[in-house]
Amino acid sequence: MNQHVRNTRHRLAAAVAVALAVTAGAAVAPAGAAMPMTGAAVVTAVNGPADADVVPFPKDAMVVAAGPKGFLSYQNGSTVTWRWTRYLDGATTVLPSGGRYVYAPESDIVPEIVGNGRFTMHDMITGTALELDISPLGDGYDVVGYAGADILAKKADATGGHELHVIGERAGVLVDDTVTGLPTDAVIADVTVDGPATAVVRYSSTVDGVRRSRAAVVDIASHAVVEEYALPAGGQGAIDLSATHIAWVEQTTASTVTVAVTPRKTDRTVRHDLGTMDGPVHIQLVGEWLTYRQSGNWETDPYIYADPLKARSLTTGETVTLLDNTVNDAPGPDGSQMVRGGTIAHGEGLYRIDAGGGATRPVVTFVASTGQPTALELVSHTVPATIDFDRTTAPVSLSWNFGRTRARVYVELIHTASKKQATLRAFTSEAAAGSYIAEWDGLFDDSVPAYNGDYVWRIRAEPTNGVGPALVRSGTFKVVRKATSHDFDDNGSSDLLLRNGKGELFVHTGYPDDLGPLWKQKDPVRIGTGWNTYDQLVAPGNVAGSSYADIVARDKTGVLWLHQGAGRTLASRVRVGGGWQIYSRITGGSDLNGDRRPDLLATDKAGVLWLYKGTGSAASPFASRTRIGGGWGVYNEITATGDLGGNPTGDLVARDGNDTLWLYLGKGDGAFAPRTRIGSNWNPFLPVRVGDVDRDGRADLVGYSSSGGVYFAKGTGNWRAPFKDLELMSYVWNLEDPNTVF
Fold first, then answer.
1. For 135, which DSSP code?
2. Other CB atoms closer than 10 Å to residue 35's CB: what's the count?
3. CB count in 10 Å sphere of residue 469
4. Which of 152, 494, 719, 725 has the fewest CB atoms in 10 Å of its CB?
């Protein structure tokens, strides 16, 4: 047999147990006092290795058998791997792949089914192999277990019952011994091999005309029944045998589990109520203690990882928790138990449970580690320090790696300044086990695009198996975007500004919808009061050289004021000119001379159109006026829209007294090309410049009606028909003055 051996620097002897310590504050039952199973469990302490570099135990592996010198593990994967590990120094033998290996409890022999009645018994201590061929014995043998190098098989007899056979090699000769002491009509239900020396046979036979269930203890060496115990009618669960007791599981109701324990060679059965359990129950006798655990399907059910391993005193009824969770277990040498599981303190791996000699409770020893935590621990995370939504297409993947699955992970992304947040769930998959991923669409919970600025991410990971506390962790990141010309809440969206009758100014933030862009009606952001001082309001974009959109306002005395944008608020106003009462219409937002600064346009009461070129200076944002032309008195509304015709410079739309909408394409020198008719029946609608609302690279237009309807005209990029038809959006505001939406 090929062997692949790996030696560790540290001996497993470093993990040898000493006396168990009881967790501080845990209740201890006085000697002789019975403690109910429903009481608080006492959690034991674990004897761990002296050095963190312990013998490794493969991840996703289970302990299969444990002999006096080493243990056998089984690991699933693309190929199945069987390993035998020596306690003394951690030397590991990987069994040749492709073999049909089974196990012999409490033995260092690993049986392999070769086929056609042939077996190979691998002695893991000597490295030798014994070949057994039972095919000469004939047909009808049903192998039911392995006891060291021997095979146990049942065979139907002529009466309809079963015989039990012990088959092995003695001095080079194949020997088939029939177990004596079983009734001739015994129908064997199952055989539990306790170790190389003994096995427990559950069978039924007829006594006084009634079919009854029995448990027989078989001595392997003498191949004879040495003890018998009556079992209750109906099915039983797991059964176990120790040097002093025999125990079996009784299902008394649909969910309540009772374990019957009988001192060997007596009929003094004591029943222990384990309470309500949802699945199969595993038990083992360890000295004067009964260990038990509920078994979930570890390999197929991702939400039941395992359950705690508990122990109940056979003398006092005291209950203690030995391991916080378990995966599987196997009988160990000298009446011990080997358990693949974990504790909050030491993590996942292989643990040994011993009676502990004179110890008051079982001794738990950490034997080998998988390197995985039992409690949820955050191993790493992938949350970008900066999320740039101009460069990153939503949704953005954010991930947290816990090194294991079986958790519910809740995520909060909180904008530090406003406290608005996005609430998400993170999920894992087989392809990224232990890595939980949340997909963020860049929106807050109310569907508003997330603000730029600093954020805190906070996760709460709850173990689905209830093992350990919930894990709460947090970190920080930033959201950034380029400033847009009509964004007043710093989230990259084009907003609508609204002034109500009280003079309050609100931002109705834009947000995406399947039907197109919408504007938030509920919970708008109030950014100022006292705005009824002004009779003209313009949102021309960034005229003051900062990163944010600004507002230009004319008061009723003709003074022009600049309200510089400051993110989600406005800075204190600055006076930028006087004498503006001569103008009937003011608009802004188009770059008419190609210097990449928004300009201001105004028509005076004589119908002359004037251009105020933007300077980029907050103190003096506009240059002296330049006359563009006359005859503009025919228009009752003018709106600088930005680029509609595909040229580098901006354009202008105007509504005349016949409700016709006209387009003036900018020529790039501050003047306009001849007008083009682009719409009719605009009487109900006030054209409002909003920039590129749907972020497709084309300027759009909003039409606001006096009845309160908000309409959206999507830009086409074609100057001959620059807008699609107006579509009513679902949010409206009823206002007396339509000029207060801009």
1. G
2. 20
3. 11
4. 725
Q: Tokens 């609430």: give the residue.
A: 423
Nearest to 666 by CA among 742, 719, 607: 719
For residues 110 and 128, give the distance between their C-alpha atoms in angstroms, rounded to a whole number: 11
The structure tokens listed for 582 are 């001569």
Q: Which residues contact 633 (CB under 8 A, 6 or more apart)?
A: 584, 603, 605, 606, 607
| C-alpha–C-alpha distance, residues 351 and 385, integer Å | 41
Neighbours of 551 (CB within 10 A): 24
- The conformation of residue 489, written as its DSSP 8-state character, comes to S
Helices (H), ranges, 177-223: none
- Rounded to 5 degrees, what angle do the CA atoms 649, 650, 653 make? 150
Closest to 704 measured CA to CA, from 725, 682, 722, 677: 682
User: Residue 284: which of 224, 229, 252, 243 has the closest Cα?
Assistant: 243
Residue type, 130: L
Best CA proximity match to 454, nearest among 417, 483, 423: 417
CB–CB of 410/398 below 8 Å?
no
For residues 519 and 710, what is the distance between their CA atoms, to the nearest angstrom?
9
> How many of the other CB atoms lie within 10 Å of CB of 492?
21
The upper half-sphere exposure of residue 159, i.e. CA atoms within 13 Å in the direction of its Cβ, equals 10
pLDDT of residue 33: 27
For residues 735 and 659, give the distance between their C-alpha atoms in angstroms, rounded to a whole number: 21
| Residue 54: band (very low, low, confident or very high) from pLDDT cuts 50, 70, 90 | low
Dist CA 645 CA 721 (whole Å): 9
Instruction: For 1-36, write each residue's pLDDT tens digit.
Output: 333 332 322 333 333 332 222 222 222 222 222 222
- C-alpha 143/C-alpha 155 separation (Å) is 9
Measure the CA dihedral 380/386/390/392, to 10°: -10
Name the average pLDDT for the chain: 83
Half-sphere CA count of 715, side-chain side, radius 13 A: 23
Give the integer Cα–Cα distance in Å for 206 and 200.
19
Residues in a beta bridge with 702 = 688, 712
Buried-exposed string 137-172: b where 16+ CB fall within 10 A, e elsewhere: eeeebebbbbbbbbbbbbbeeeeebbbbbbbbeeee
Under DSSP, the state recorded for 97 is: T
First-to-final CA distance of the chain:
85
The answer to whether the pTM exceeds 0.70 is yes
HEC profile of 414-478: EECCCCCEEEEEEECCHHHCCEEEEEECCECCCCCECCCEEEEEEEEEEECCCCCCCEEEEEEEE
SS3 content of the chain, % helix, strand, coil (to 5): 5, 50, 50
Pairing of strands 307-313, 347-354: unpaired
Q: Decide: helix, strand or coil at residue 133.
A: strand
Tokens representing residue 492 in the block: 């990259």
Q: Are 494 and 510 contacting, i.e. CB atoms less than 8 angstroms apart?
A: yes
Q: What is the pLDDT of residues 400-455, one digit of tens each?
A: 998 777 788 999 999 999 999 999 999 887 666 788 999 999 989 988 889 999 99
Whether 132 contacts 174, CB under 8 Å: yes
Structure tokens at 702: 């909003």
Instruction: Pick the closest to residue 14 from 370, 366, 340 (CA basis).
Output: 366
Cα–Cα distance, 680 to 666 (Å, whole number): 21
Single-letter amino acid, residue 185? D
Q: Return the closest-CA partner of residue 446 out of 539, 497, 511.
A: 511
